[in-house]
Amino acid sequence: MVRGVVAFCPGHISGYFKQIIGRDAATTGSIGAGIVISEGVLARVEPSERTSVQICRKAKSGALTVVAHDSPPLTYAMNLLSINASVITECRLPIGAGFGLSAAALLATLTALDKLYNLGLAEGDIARAAHESEIAHHTGLGDVAACRGGGLVVRTTAGITAPVHRYFNLPEPIYAVSFGPIHTPSVLEAEERMEQVASAFPHTEPKNIEDFFRCSRVFAQRSGLLTPQVQTVLDRCDELDVPASMTMLGNGVFAYGKEAGRVLSQFGLTYDMGVATKEAHIVEVIS
């Protein structure tokens, strides 16, 4: 008998996006581009007759701090599959700061639950449940679609079954600095803000990392989402020719290349990561 399962899913930093309203949750989402990162969410699940959820942050020392005792998106997705369980998620990156951790938590948890209860779900079934939960709770638009694989991700059609272009020629590290969260629902539910975001969307498909950061930066400047703290960091990155933009949606900056770490560290705690090469996967099965 399986007593527990641990799964991991990488996060996703969106550089630019445009909301697309479809005929249902599966076809609603966004187009845009981002990077699937090696940092993400680890989910531990155990059988339980009643669902319980703990959301934890992991410090450099390895110590875990519980930051929430509930997650409506996770509970919603589990209800879709008619299952209960004890769930503990942990992450190193700040929550709600533009790292796609909501999508990563959903995919990691559902992947682990599929193994725990031997549900026999296809990867697409898991992705659809996670995506529907994100759409229902306004916690994301295209992160689930992006996190189904790795690389630099370009999405030209919205929805969970839409094709995704992935590029893996990104050998340099990625660094990020965060000044706090941006409440994603407050942006996605605000019609005027989303209209400005839509008007800022760059209608071009990046072919390399330089194109991606160029498009992302133009979008950040025109979207109305840029904060003064982010602008200060981006100005410094410009002075030193470091490719950088704003984490969408989060009050922070991500940048590419070895020099990026030195620059961002001048402004606060810096997170280093690579480009993910795989999707959500099982880490451990506890018998």
Polypeptide structure, described:
- The protein is an alpha+beta fold and 287 residues long.
- The chain folds into two domains: 4-165 and 275-286, 2-Layer Sandwich (Ribosomal Protein S5, domain 2), CATH 3.30.230; 167-273, Alpha-Beta Plaits (2-Layer Sandwich), CATH 3.30.70.
- Helix content is 32%, strand content 31%.
- The protein is built from nine helices and twelve strands.
- The chain has helices at 72-80, 101-116, 123-137, 143-146, 184-188, 191-199, 209-223, 228-239, 258-264, and strands spanning 4-20, 29-47, 52-58, 64-68, 85-91, 152-155, 165-167, 174-181, 244-246, 250-256, 270-273, 281-286.
- Strands 1, 2, 3, 4, 5, 6, 7 and 12 form an eight-stranded mixed beta sheet that branches. It has a four-stranded antiparallel beta sheet with strand order 9-10-8-11.
- α1 (72-80) packs parallel to α2, α1 (72-80) packs across α3 (123-137) and α2 (101-116) packs across α3 (123-137).
- The chain is globular and about 60 Å long.
- 48% of the residues are buried.
Quick synopsis:
Helix content is 32%, strand content 31%. It has 287 residues and is of the alpha+beta class.
Topology:
Layout: E1 4-20, E2 29-47, E3 52-58, E4 64-68, H1 72-80, E5 85-91, H2 101-116, H3 123-137, H4 143-146, E6 152-155, E7 165-167, E8 174-181, H5 184-188, H6 191-199, H7 209-223, H8 228-239, E9 244-246, E10 250-256, H9 258-264, E11 270-273, E12 281-286
Parallel strand pairs: 3-5
Antiparallel strand pairs: 1-2, 1-12, 2-5, 2-6, 3-4, 6-7, 8-10, 8-11, 9-10
Helix pairs in contact: 1-2, 1-3, 2-3
> What's the number of structural domains?
2
Question: How many strands?
Answer: 12
What is the C-level CATH assignment of the largest domain?
Answer: Alpha Beta
How would a textbook summarize the main sheet?
Answer: 8 strands, mixed
CATH-derived topology of the largest domain: Ribosomal Protein S5, domain 2
Structural class computed from helices and strand pairing: alpha+beta
Task: Give the helix level as a range of percent.
Answer: 25-40%
Percent of sequence in beta strands: 25-35%
CATH architecture annotation of the largest domain: 2-Layer Sandwich
